[in-house]
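We store amino acids, tokens; thus:
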Amino acid sequence: MTLDLSKRILTDPYSKAPAILLIGKSGAGKSTLANMLIGEKKFKTSDNSGSSTSSSTQICQSALICLDGEEYNLVDTPGIFDTKRPNDKMQNEIARSIVQCSHGLMAILFVIDFQAAGRYTKEQQTTTDAILKFLGGQEESCRHIIVVFTHCRQKQTEDRFFMEEGFSADLKLFLNKIGWRWVIAPDPEIFKEPNDPVVERNMNDLKHYIRLLPIYYTTELFKKVRIAREKELQEIESNEKKTTNEKIDAGLAVAKHEFRGEGCFPLHSKVILTDGRRIEVSQLSIGDKVCCGEKNGKLIFSEIYAVVHTDNQTVTQYQRIDYLKSDGTEGTLRLTPKHHLFVSQGKTIFAEDVRAYETELLLFDGKKLIPVIPHRVTREWELGYTAPLTQSGKIVVDDILCSCYAVAPPYQAIIDFVMVSFRLYSWIMPISDCNKEIHPYIRYLKRGQWVLEQIDYFNTIIKRL
């Protein structure tokens, strides 16, 4: 759905009102809840979006709302932590949501489709953890969360005690963590009458919970975006040619940079050192030697010579690959979708191209590498990433043989050759500290990525002949 920014971001760009943020999966009913809370249809919903191809709104929307004399910025988000990979348009919408929260968070309305999520699955728990970390950590965000259930049946909506009987143990545990603050957004297909008392009662309960919340809070991310936004707005004021849309999107570039799908490995992924110890990849230091495979029954270790970028706050999307180890226990590898990993033919592929029950990966069983076929491939969001480089260009992570490279077309031997210059550079100028920005020399080398892209293009044509 495409709408002009000024028709969906209704908040004054100069407003400093803290946000009431609606989060949840796409199609959960966030936009419908926003309209209920406002008392009029200001937000576009899937029913009136005019789109026949989307089951839900995939845009950021906002409007000012007044509760007990206090002004807040009500922000409706796209499905921020949906498992599908966000495209550029979706990343822009996510960034706009962050911009609209740059003056702090008063309340986080966690919208859950009860019919689809009443059991509160492991995937939903993982998503919840990612949301809490992203919004300032478990302790702070839990003090501001209110759960809003949608798509509930009539009896569940009318009888709170009957509704609670359907809560799973895991859901009850989560609700206890947030102070048992929950309400129902009545289904408009059931409660159709204007000023329906059931709708009014639930919305009044929601407003009551918001009034009882502590003072609004902020995070380092929101502070950074607010500073950038205020600076850009000052620059816009001095330029008469700037448009309303540019005012609305002030700070967008900084927000988008903080929410991305780049990186390599999650911080908690495990690697194997020469003495057999397994440590988290975030604990690696330059000079450490890690397992990178085996040859003729002998383990091979390779030295870490650089960590090209790392960060513990950026929200990153990972490809989650579940497989069975040789002893029957379940293993899990997480890496960014554009990262390379080895398949049994000795080639490398993108992680996003791994297929359950089809792709043969290489599993380290403690002595040698053996083929393994994953039984589940999904997407997850986590905070943080790190990207270590070994002299061999290979590394065993969570018992799976991976490449150290990403993004460029997966031609391991060619990238190894190209990286010789960086290994020489790091030997002359040792790389001690790294940050979230990719090392400038690697950025320089990426200018030659088009060569690999051309090779990949011609290989694709040849395969089709």
Notes: Residues 48-55 have pLDDT under 50 and may be disordered. The longest strand covers residues 298-324. The chain has 17 helices and 19 strands. The longest helix spans residues 220-237.
